[in-house]
Amino acid sequence: MKGLIMDYPLTTNTILEYGNSVYHHKKIITHLPDGTRHEYSFGDMYKRCKKLANALTQKLGIKNGDMVGTFAWNHGPHVELYYGISGIGAVCHTINIRLSSHQIEYIINNSEDKVIFVDATLVPLLEKIAPLLETVEHFVLINAAQDFTTTLPNTLHYEDLIADQSDHFEWPAINENDASGLCYTSGTTGLPKGVLYSHRSTFLHATTIMSPNAGNFSNRDTVLLIVPQFHVMAWGFPYLCLLSGSNMVLPSSNLQPEAIIKILIEEKVNKANGVPTIWLGVYHALKMNPPKEKLALEEYLVGGSALTKSLIQGFEKDFGIKGVQAWGMTETSPLGTVSRLQPLHDSLSEDEKITIRAKQGTAFPGVELRIVTDDGKVAPTDGKTMGELQIKGAWTISSYFKTNNHESFTEDGWFKTGDVSTIDQDGYMEIKDRTKDLIKSGGEWISSVALESALMAHPKIKEAAVIAIPDEKWVEKPLASIVLLNSDDTVSDEELIDFLSREFVKYQIPKDYVYINEVPKTSVGKFDKKEIRRLFAEGKLT
Ligand code: ADP
């Protein structure tokens, strides 16, 4: 029997209309690369989305289902593009500016973008590949001076494009299962693959992440969106801020630790998101230059790679700021789990509590997780049995865009994450490694993530990345690349072996160490193990 409830579409227009009707007074603040600050309200942004919708349909001829690319940092116009493009039934394709030229060319041609909106500061990256782009009819420049010169063909200025448009626009009826956004994986495992989000998945992800047991966002918050809008829709934050009525602070390219701290102070930001690399940088910058007053920042939500126990402890002890770990993938919209304590943990010691918070956490409502062992069996939830993490849910990918990649999905409808994890009796998932990064030494698995977390708790170490290298006797063995906090410091291999022996058994402890200036990072700031392996293979890791 069908329920007798309205068939009300969960679309990005529903989010925008809600944000405008209830929170039109809330603010969107952008710190631009030249140091200027721009502030306007959700209500102002709403009107500009409608102007944009008129321009897209009437001036640029964009139709339902067309792809429109963005190549931009986090700022007000980029938020307008999120809503304006999907609002007319087109698809907002956010292009990762940090990919290689070859990958960028590939994804623009693969997605068949008709128009690309590009930041003036990023134009040189597209100029190089423009002649190779097969489908792009117009480039629209954002934040470009009137006398800006470029070799890009068919350019328009964003402000000119929307200036004379009406701010009245009737949104078309959109099926909530239609595509709203497209984001490619960062290609750490081959060519980037497209993940096509739907209006419904975007809506459900945002409403869930906002709830207290999840991201905990409300109309009392001012949120800094550090995660780039070109990476998994900034974790859905431009949507959840409109639903929760949180002020949105956008840093554009101001992502150096000092610049982030300045914005945190100036805007009295109390919540933020970001990958661990960013927060590690902010932590060390705060240690070097402690702020005169306590920051308003209460919580930072971290994902993308592991938030270590030592960073959680450091931030909390030194600055009273709480790190909250979340896990996700481009394929899971991205957020799938978050690690928060519950009343059942009240009686635990502080150390035990931090150990739980350093896990990747419990699934969000609407998401299911399971661990499948090498022999194809579903593992018990004992916190010990390792296997591949599989996921299904209301915002999990069902297949890749234009690719028949069956090996990523199981026959019974789960997505295979490629992460090796455990799940404990209370449902807390812990990532041990990615399948391809696990080290198998003498037939025993060694978790590179666990070694890295332990090494990064050493007072002299800033970053540590562990990879497997060939070994005659053990087949593989771990090699640790170490970045010291202070380049004048020294630390011996023996000291590190001794330090690790408190937590690890002998065979797990790396005997090989290299001391480097910086760990190579991927386009989204993760340790680039593929690159570290390449440097090692070419004898350049010294
Ligand atoms: P890519 O797959 O190209 O690296 P994603 O951003 O989609 O790009 O990365 C998803 C992967 O990042 C996950 O499969 C997992 O390995 C890792 N990851 C994400 N969040 C965490 C976390 N909190 N702790 C450890 N690893 C994480």
TrEMBL record:
* Domain AMP-binding enzyme C-terminal, first and last residues per copy: 451-526
Matches recorded under SUPFAM superfamilies = Acetyl-CoA synthetase-like
CDD domains reported for this sequence: ttLC_FACS_AlkK_like
Q: Name one GO molecular function term.
A: ligase activity
Signal sequence residues? none
GO biological process entries: fatty acid metabolic process
UniProt keyword Ligase, yes or no: yes
Q: Does the keyword Membrane apply?
A: no
Where does the AMP-dependent synthetase/ligase domain start and stop, copy by copy? Answer: 35-401
Keyword set, alphabetical order:
Fatty acid metabolism, Ligase, Lipid metabolism
Family, as annotated: Belongs to the ATP-dependent AMP-binding enzyme family.
Protein name in the entry: Fatty-acyl-CoA synthase
- Mind giving the lineage of the organism this protein is from? Bacteria, Pseudomonadati, Bacteroidota, Flavobacteriia, Flavobacteriales
